[in-house]
Amino acid sequence: MENLESVETKRRSRGRPSPEQAIALRESFLAAALESFLDKGYAATSIEAIAREAGVAKITIYRQFDNKEALFREVVHRAVSSARETMQATLVQQDADERQVLLDLVDRMYLSATEPKTLALLRLVIAEAVRFPELAKSLYAENSYVLAPVVEYLAKAHKAGTLYVPSPELAAVQLSTLAFGGVRFFISKPLAGPEERRAWAEGIVDLVMRGWTPAPADASEKPTPGND
Questions:
Q1: How far is it, in rounded angstroms, from Cα 33 to Cα 187?
Q2: How far apart are CA 164 and CA 166, in angstroms?
């Protein structure tokens, strides 16, 4: 006698899946894709293998993604979307001064970049960048997507006169680069805990605030020689 699971599988195969089933199928093969890319690398991963691991038909994946590159882009996009949402939550804090907002941003940028699977994906893209330059381009585009809320915040702060950041896009990239630690965390272990992260964030924010703090209104006025 067939079990209920096999009967349900046959029922789904006779028609289009329900919206709930479609979401579940998508989640299953995207999760399998992430694990396969991280475990085998980009070149050794195939859509056919992902379909087998996820227990879905190849056509289920091909209906949504034309090729492996498009699938990989979606995997990366999903991995970084939570970072964007976290930063957006930081930026809508009420009654937080600029220094506190920047401290929270640096901390959350660091945590998002050093989350194990995200860090593994970043390492994968770097390792495959020479053979598959389009992957590096897609990651660069994702970085712009993630930093968009930060750029908007810095632009507003500059317009309001609370920070001096005439080029918010460049400033956001510089801040994120400092927060991520460049190549440091790609080749060594992450910071030990909250205290080390706080010290890391404070050092970065103290540095950028020296350049981003607006000069006093009368700072440009120079004393007239002989009028001491």
A1: 25
A2: 6
pLDDT at site 22? 81
The dihedral sign for the CA sequence 63, 69, 71, 74: negative
Residues in the chain: 228
Q: Pinpoint the alpha helices (H) of 64-189.
A: 68-91, 98-114, 116-128, 133-160, 168-180, 184-187
Residue that the structure tokens 């350049």 belong to: 211
Instruction: For the chain, give the percent of residues with pLDDT over 70.
Output: 87
154 touches 163 (CB < 8 A): yes
pLDDT for 218 equals: 56
Quick check: 89 and 184 in contact, CB under 8 A?
Answer: no
- In sequence order, what are the residues at sequence separation of 6 or more whose Cβ sits closer than 8 angstroms to the Cβ of residue 146? 80, 83, 84, 87, 112
CB within 8 Å of 125: residues ≥ 6 apart: 76, 135, 136, 139
CA dist., res. 106 & res. 206, Å (int): 12
